């Protein structure tokens, strides 16, 4: 049984390690969008290249995050976490010195591999190290500091882009890793799962990643109408079918198909695909809209979205408690509708937009919608499966959110008629942005309808999330495999 107490020096070192590690991935996911216009200008990149700058990272992270958690269980959580931190920092360094957009995209894909190793490891180290009486408090501190990092991220990213330059958005990860790795090696105990003796589903992970890669390529490059696009689309579908075939027949699949035998679990993941697809498209395009069309600085664009993160940081735990009392159906129905209203309010944002009258009302409504739905969504995912599959269910839901964002970033410019040079033309981009907000709002309405029709109150003795404070805008929180909390009516 883990026996480290939170008040002990070792407990504080463990918390520092996990906060530093998770902050690397969290900061990267919140600051890169702010840097996109400057990256495009400096590297002479078209819109497709900017899409790949975002999607290359999400592609490998979404495809490998379930495998990353399994590697930690088998070979040691600290070891895999440290490898992930070093890998992420090395890829970040390559991003920071990239001479062209091709190298940058490749480095971003490598970053996603590192993120898939360190992201599941942060919470797993806490759950495997701390005494059960302190674990809930430790998770709370870890998630709280993570929320602060998410809030600081866009502000810091904007300041770096406007000051030292966009390359420092990536180079910042290197000193964080140099601090994190020695502390982890010296103060964090190694842990693993002695029962993890099955094989790794490398084939499943590869097929899943290939399917996403081909589909993403086909969507981003569809404007060209080339034979390669058609072949990529067919290959993506074929790889997806092969992934399902392999997962159904492997004795130890990465994503066991029978987990979807729970109608509630399937329904909540459909809601996840809708809402996080809308979020992914919104946060990709909003930073561009504020800089390209409204003429704001990178710092102004990053700071503009700060209220959404602050609201989630302050209110997500209370939202989760409310959902326990009234059930998840109302929050998961109302939350997406509030988010849709916030995105429609963004239609007012154009040239010379005012923050107080145009942007802030939209951001506040969006943030309240996210507060309403994120914590209940996570709780409902955990409540829909057996206790022993909590970590798997959370990982699948987290990956689904990232896949939704990946597809949205690839598809929205195609659906709304954004040309390769659209982000260089304020008028063209403004028109396409407004059409995009309508698409995103529509997707949220679909998610609300699915929640209203399918989500039911969970059983009184089902699993309850340990991570109650959450401020990430890119995916719902991960829950560890050893969670023991209970969700009560």
UniProtKB/TrEMBL annotation:
PROSITE patterns noted in UniProt: MFS
Its membrane topology: Multi-pass membrane protein
Localisation: Cell membrane
Superkingdom as given in the UniProt entry: Bacteria
Pfam families: MFS_1 (PF07690)
Keyword RNA-binding attributed: no
InterPro entries, per the entry: EmrB-like, MFS, MFS_dom, MFS_trans_sf
Keywords: Antibiotic resistance, Cell membrane, Membrane, Transmembrane, Transmembrane helix, Transport
Transmembrane segments: 49-68, 80-99, 105-126, 138-160, 166-188, 200-220, 226-246, 267-290, 296-317, 329-347, 359-387, 399-416, 436-455
Domain (Major facilitator superfamily (MFS) profile): residue spans on this chain: 14-459
Name of the protein in its database record: MFS transporter
Native source organism of the sequence: Streptomyces vulcanius
């Amino acid at each position: 049984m883990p026996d480290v107490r939170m008040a002990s020096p070792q407990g504080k070192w463990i918390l520092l390690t996990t906060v530093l590690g998770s902050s690397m991935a969290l900061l990267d996911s919140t600051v890169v969008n702010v840097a996109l216009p400057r990256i495009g200008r400096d590297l002479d990149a078209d819109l497709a290249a900017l899409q790949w700058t975002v999607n290359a990272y999400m592609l490998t992270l979404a495809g490998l995050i379930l495998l990353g958690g399994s590697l930690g269980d088998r070979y040691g959580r600290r070891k895999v976490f440290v490898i992930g931190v070093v890998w992420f920092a090395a890829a970040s360094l390559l991003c920071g010195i990239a001479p062209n957009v091709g190298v940058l995209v490749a480095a971003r894909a490598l970053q996603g591999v590192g993120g898939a190793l360190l992201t599941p490891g942060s919470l797993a180290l806490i759950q495997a190290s701390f005494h059960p009486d302190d674990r809930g408090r430790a998770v709370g501190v870890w998630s709280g500091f993570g929320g602060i990092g998410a809030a600081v991220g866009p502000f810091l990213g904007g300041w770096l882009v406007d000051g030292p330059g966009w390359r420092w958005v990536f180079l910042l990860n290197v000193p964080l890793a140099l601090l994190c790795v020695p502390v982890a090696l010296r103060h964090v105990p190694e842990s693993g799962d002695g029962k993890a003796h099955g094989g790794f589903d490398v084939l499943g992970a590869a097929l899943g990643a290939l399917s996403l890669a081909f589909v993403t390529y086909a969507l981003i490059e569809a404007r060209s109408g080339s034979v390669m696009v058609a072949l990529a689309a067919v290959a993506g579908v074929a790889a997806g079918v092969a992934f399902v075939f392999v997962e159904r027949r492997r004795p130890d699949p990465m994503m066991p198909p029978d987990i979807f035998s729970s109608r509630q679990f399937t329904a909540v993941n459909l809601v996840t695909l809708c809402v996080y697809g809308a979020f992914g498209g919104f946060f990709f395009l909003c930073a561009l809209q504020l800089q390209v069309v409204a003429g704001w600085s990178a710092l102004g664009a990053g700071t503009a979205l700060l209220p959404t993160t602050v609201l989630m940081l302050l209110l997500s735990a209370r939202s989760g408690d409310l959902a326990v009392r009234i059930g998840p159906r109302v929050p998961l129905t109302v939350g997406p509708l509030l988010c849709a209203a916030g995105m429609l309010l963004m239609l007012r944002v154009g040239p010379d937009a005012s923050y107080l009258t145009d942007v802030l009302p939209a951001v506040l409504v969006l943030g309240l919608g996210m507060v309403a739905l994120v914590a209940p969504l996570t709780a409902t995912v955990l409540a829909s499966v057996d206790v022993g599959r909590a970590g798997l269910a959370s990982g699948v839901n987290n990956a689904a959110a990232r896949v939704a964002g990946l597809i949205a970033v690839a598809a929205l410019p195609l659906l709304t008629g954004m040309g390769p040079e659209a982000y260089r033309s304020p008028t063209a981009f403004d028109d396409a942005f407004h059409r995009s907000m309508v698409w995103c709002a529509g997707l949220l309405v679909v998610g609300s309808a699915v929640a209203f029709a399918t989500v039911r109150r969970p059983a009184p003795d089902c699993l309850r999330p340990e991570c109650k404070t959450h401020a990430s805008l890119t995916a719902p929180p991960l829950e560890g495999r050893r969670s023991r909390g209970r969700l009560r009516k």
